[in-house]
Each structure stands twice: as C-alpha cells, then as structure tokens.
Specification:
The protein is mainly α. It folds into two domains: 2-86, Arc Repressor Mutant, subunit A; 91-201, Arc Repressor Mutant, subunit A (Orthogonal Bundle). The protein has helices spanning 2-12, 22-35, 47-55, 57-65, 98-116, 130-141, 148-161, 184-187, 190-201; strands spanning 37-38, 69-74, 79-84, 126-129, 164-166, 177-180. The strands form two sheets. A three-stranded antiparallel beta sheet has the order 1-3-2. A three-stranded antiparallel beta sheet has the order 4-6-5. Helix 2 crosses helix 3, helix 3 (47-55) crosses helix 4 and helix 5 packs across helix 6 (130-141).
Length: 242
C-alpha cells in the first residue's frame, strides 16, 4: 500500500529526507487526536512536534485521511486542525449540553465581531473575558448563564481543543481574561452557528434537534443524551467533554 511506503519513507529517511523517529511520529499523531487544533504555542505541546507535523504535512494528511478525517493548515494563523471527512459514522453519537452550546455560540460571535472590528491580532486571535461571555449568553438566550465554576469547566475543555486560551483570573473582580483562537471556527462552523442561532430564536428548546451527524467526535462512542440540545461542533474528543 502507498500509505505503508510513505511510513517507511518517513522513518527511514528516504528521498533525501532525514529519518524521523517512530516515537516522534506517534506523539504527533496522538497530539492531534488529543487537541484536534494546535498552534506553535499550544500548551504542553513541544514545538518540535508541531514543526514535524508542518514539515511532513502530506504524510499526516494521508494518515488521517485513511481514518476519514482531514487535516487543514492555516499558515497565517499557525493553526493545524483535524476536520470531519465524508464518513460521518463516528461523529453522530454525541450531544452538547445547552450551556456548552450557548458558550460556543457566544465565543463564535466574539471572534466574528472582533475580526470585523479589526480587534484581532496578527494571528487572528480576539481577546474577551468571562464577564463578556456571561453577558452574551444572557442576551442570546434570555437565560441565566452557567455558574462561574461551570463556565470555567467548559472553557478548560475548549482550551484543550485549541479553541481558547485562559489567562490568570482577577480574583477580586472574579473575571478571567480569555483569548478566542481562530480554531473556534473549526469547532463552530458557519452551518452549526446558523443552526444554533435558529435554535436560540425558538427559545433554545431541549428537543429542537439532535447531534448533527456531521459534527464532533470520531473516537468517542458514547450514546446520545436525549435530555440535551443541539447538534455540536466539529470536535474530535477521545476523552469525552464536560
């Protein structure tokens, strides 16, 4: 098989390339499966692992392509991300909870508005904070946002996914600065955002629509939770979500 030849080429350093250690390749694969979206400064990820994926992107594209996933690279933002492929089987067995859905939509709006207003930095990142997220959820759904501890739990899950960065909280003001990363648009694509806006306009009913088979986790085979709403983002998550 061509894929096996490419593995040998990578490990043995054929075609004029230096050989790559098998352990380094395994770490790179597991890093993408764990985080889904990575950048040069992703926490706990060695820079040489990121550089390996960029340098041998064709190999990783074909490797994940065999698993029914795509690999997208944005040189301008430094983002490397796994995205859903044509086969949707493994993505259809999950649901987001209502507070997760509303938090994702609030963050997508923060990112979009920041980009339009020219507030993003040179790598497409927009600054916000937990107070603004609370306010946006209230305005969006006319409901009380999740408790501070629950919001932090959701944001930590999104940090692992490569969608946000969390900064040192202000314990007096009880505000945590948050950086929304361009990868948020991978998790909350235009189609999902439009569906969630429609769901919110209808009052965010719990039974509006089930997990979209085109979204979320190809590695998590848990059963759907019928008590929670709607179709979720393109999130690879081998360890579940909050």
């Amino acid at each position: 098989m061509l894929e096996l030849d490419e593995v040998r080429d990578l490990l043995e350093g054929r075609r004029g390339n230096a050989p790559v250690d098998k352990n380094d390749v395994e770490i790179a694969i597991q890093a993408l499966l764990t985080h889904q979206i990575i950048y040069p400064d992703t926490g706990l990820l060695r820079r040489d692992t990121y550089d390996l994926i960029r340098r041998h992107s064709l190999f990783f594209e074909r490797y994940f392509g065999a698993m029914g996933m795509g690999l997208t690279i944005e040189p301008a933002t430094g983002m490397v991300a796994l995205v859903r492929g044509q086969n949707r089987y493994g993505w259809q067995f999950n649901r987001l909870k209502k507070d997760e859905t509303l938090t994702l939509l609030a963050l997508r709006l923060v990112l979009d508005e920041g980009l339009r207003a020219g507030l993003a930095d040179e790598t497409g990142r927009v600054e916000t904070n937990t107070d603004e997220i609370f306010d946006r959820i209230r305005a969006l759904a006319k409901v009380e946002p999740p408790a501070q501890s629950r919001l932090e739990e959701i944001l930590k899950w999104l940090r692992k996914r490569g969608a946000v960065l969390l900064h040192e909280p202000d314990r007096i003001e009880r505000i945590t600065p948050v950086t929304v990363l361009p990868g948020l648009r991978i998790l909350v694509d235009d189609s999902f955002a439009t569906s969630v806006i429609k769901w919110v306009e209808l009052g965010a009913p719990d039974d509006f629509f089930a997990w979209n088979a085109g979204q979320r986790d190809p590695t998590d085979e848990s059963e759907p939770d019928s008590s929670n709403p709607p179709a979720g983002p393109h999130a690879v998550n081998s360890e579940g979500h909050p």
